[in-house]
Structures are given as C-alpha cells and as structure tokens.
Design a protein that fits this description.
alpha+beta, T-fold, 9 helices
Length: about 300
C-alpha cells in the first residue's frame, strides 16, 4: 500500500515467539489485500478489472467485492462525492501510478474522461463474488477506502487471536479496542494540516472506534505558485480549490471512516459540515483561512465522542 503500519497490543506480555507469529500473520494479511487491490500491481484484481473492456461479471475475491460494496454505500450517502471510478482523473492530474504530469490537463482531456466516471456504472455481487462495469472505459481506484478496510481486517485478526485491547495504525488510519495497559483510553493525535514538520492539532481519546483523516497538505503539486490538490472532485473532474484543509471522521468501522473523510474533503467546509451534521457523522473539519490560520468545525457527534479530550 506504499505506507507503514503499526500495531500495539495491550495486556499480558507476549513471548518473542508469539510476537513474531502475530507480526507474520498481520504482514501476510496486509500483503494479500495489497495484491488484490493495488493499482500499482498490474496483476492485482483491480488492475486486471481496469484493463478489461468486458461488461460481463468479473470474478473477484470476497475482500475486493466487500470493499466495492462499502464504496458504493458511501457514494450513495454522499451523492457521488466519494467515487472509486475517479481513478483515471487522478492519473490524468498526475497523482496515480503513471506519475507526475508535465502540467495541468486540457479541458478536452478532462471532458473525454468524465463519461467514464460515476459509481453507478459499477455493480457488485457480494455472494458470488464479482463486479462488473456498464461502460467498458470505467476504471477504479480503491486508495480512498482500502487502507481503512485493511485496518478493520487486522482488527478481525487480533480479535480471533483473543486480543481484547489494541491500537492499529496503517498510513494514518487508526482503530482501537479496549484500553491501554494503564487502564486509560487510547490517545490518538489528529495532525495539524500544515506544510511544515508534522505537529498535532488535537488529541482525542479513542475507545472501540476507528479514526481516519483526509487532507490536502501532504500530497499536492505546486505549479506556477498554485497548489493543486490530489483530491479530485468526481463530479467536476478537477482538484478541489476550497479552504477545507482536512477532515477526520470517527466511526465503528475504519473502512467507513476512511471513505467518509475523503467524501467530506471533496465537498468543502460548508457542504461537508451540513451533510455530516444531518447524518450524525462524527467529523472534525479543519478550515484554513486566508492568513494561513486553522479553524476547527466539529460536528455535534464528534464533540459527543471526543469533545472532552485534550487539545
């Protein structure tokens, strides 16, 4: 997945052998998911689906079908702000496997790709399992949801192994269960969305829940003094230009938190806050003003979950 992972298990100390066995099991599970869903691996299920021009059902693993199903549900809940079929536009703007582009794409090239973008052009059959595209040109990129799913799968692995207190982190996406060895809740930092060295905006206490963050402050291109965000709005085919610097979402499932954070980042500060508040999603919006300062906009559900934690 092009990132790092960390797993902390609280409780009785593990033997060196048990630690090694658990580490190996986690690595194997993550490697298997990467082999299914990576757009950087031409042999992965997603890459082969993207390369196919067939509109027939395409057999996939249960994991891949499950991620597509989660993605469709979040797409429907956000009216298409989250959309895994945005992959070709991500590539066009220089943020995908093809690497950086020489400059912004032309209006014509964006217009040519837009008809292939739209979550309603993909169907999912969970029981078979299989996926299909109604348009031969449709391609998918699961990078906005796969890490969250991987976090949940590691949690399933730890639960099955009998561990009742842990913190899992993959590329910044987090899920916890139980409490630390001291009996205190797990404390998780939300990063300040600045360009400089990493710093903490807020620390929250997280128990039996997941936290995911999406922002514009790490992956972007500077062209002629203008910042081009890696967050592409599937509805317009263009990078977002609003003042919403980052969104963090708390949810029981990391796969949902991951996709919701991406969708809200696309929507911008006002539309995202309105939707999140209406849906009772626990979201923290961090807005960048013209002077470069940051303003927090937590939803009521976020305040209920994390409002009393240390800033």
């Amino acid at each position: 997945m092009g990132t790092t992972f960390s797993v902390t298990v609280a409780g009785d100390p593990l033997t060196a052998e048990a630690t090694q066995d658990l580490h190996g099991a986690i690595r194997r599970r993550l490697s298997s998911l990467d082999a299914m869903m990576s757009t950087y691996d031409p042999t992965s299920e997603v890459s082969r689906f993207n390369a196919s021009t067939s509109t027939d059902w395409f057999p996939v693993s249960r994991d891949t079908a499950a991620v597509f199903q989660h993605a469709k549900e979040i797409s429907e809940a956000t009216a298409g702000a989250f959309d895994v079929t945005v992959g070709p536009l991500v590539d066009l703007w220089g943020f995908g496997p093809t690497g950086r582009s020489a400059g912004p794409p032309s209006d014509d090239s964006i217009a040519r790709l837009l008809p292939t973008v739209g979550f309603k052009q993909i169907d999912v059959e969970a029981e078979t399992p299989a996926i299909r595209k109604s348009n031969a040109g449709v391609q998918s990129d699961l990078s906005g949801v796969a890490k969250g799913y991987a976090v949940d799968e590691v949690a399933e692995l730890l639960d099955a192994a009998g561990h009742s207190a842990y913190l899992i982190e993959i590329g910044g996406e987090v899920r916890t269960r139980g409490r630390r060895a001291s009996g205190e809740p797990w404390r998780v930092g939300i990063e300040r969305p600045s360009d400089g060295p990493s710093s903490i905006q807020r620390v929250i206490e997280l128990t039996d829940a997941a936290l995911a963050t999406s922002g514009d402050y790490r992956n972007y291109i500077e062209q002629d003094g203008v910042r081009i965000s890696h967050t592409i709005d599937p509805r317009t085919g263009r990078p977002v230009t609003h003042s919403l610097a980052s969104v963090s979402v708390i949810d029981p499932l990391c796969v949902r938190a991951d996709a919701l954070a991406t969708a809200l980042e696309v929507l911008g500060p006002d539309e995202a806050y309105t939707l999140a508040a209406e849906q009772k999603w626990a979201a923290l919006l961090i807005v960048r003003d013209r002077s470069g300062r940051y303003r927090e906009r937590p939803t009521p559900a976020f305040l209920a979950r994390a409002g009393n934690a240390a800033r």
